[in-house]
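Subject: sequence -> structure tokens, single chain

Hey, anyone have a minute? Need the predicted structure for the following. Not urgent.
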Amino acid sequence: MPIPEDVTGDEIDKDVRQELQSLPKTLAEDVAKNLVMVARLIDEEPERAYGYSKVALRLASRVAAVREAAGFAAYANQKYGEALAEFRAARRMTGNIELWPVMADCERGLGRPEKALDMAGAPEVYKLDKAGQVEMRLVAAGARRDMGQLDAAIVTLQSPELASNAVQPWTARLRYAYADALLAAGREPEAREWFAKAVESDKDGSTDASDRLAELDGVEFVDALDESHDDAEPGEESQDASTGSATRESPGAEDAEDDKS
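Reply:
Had a minute. Here:
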């Protein structure tokens, strides 16, 4: 697969670069460039990222960082069986426990939430750092929801991390998951409160909490480019196309359905 001229391979993390030192120099450079492309594309173009990961895997399957990158690329493409195999291989090579939560989530993706819950209760969880333990809690709650155990999912998410006012990298996602579980359980007022808290902590837009909150508040956003609104009569309550501001639905309007988490 083609590599853009601006990609040198030096963009990879220092730890990964050290792993690649076991390879011949030219091969290491080729692998590094493909890993850079995986990282660059995985969020916006996961299929292309997957292609680059397969090239890197073909070139250096005995490098743990390559197996891990291949796992995340497969995971991004919902190839959960393949992702799980790659994560397991990377863990065997390094003994690193950090991949435990995403491995458990692969079990969910494969339709085995019970296995994910078993992993959530395994001794390995206690070896995770705080971020990893929060991620494991999110996976466990998701597994409970997969099994139709909404109340158990809500209880699973209730934790010191959820109650804390301090904003950490995981705070927005944890609050969002809690709000979504509450909404699924029909506890709308509480859900609205927690979606609002998720918005407060979501500084980088990692969730769509603001959209979910707007839906609960009955706010409808209209496309400013929609020509159908150009014909609105003076005095009508419609969106001002020049500002893109929102209009609120009349009292009694139905709440929008909540999205699948």
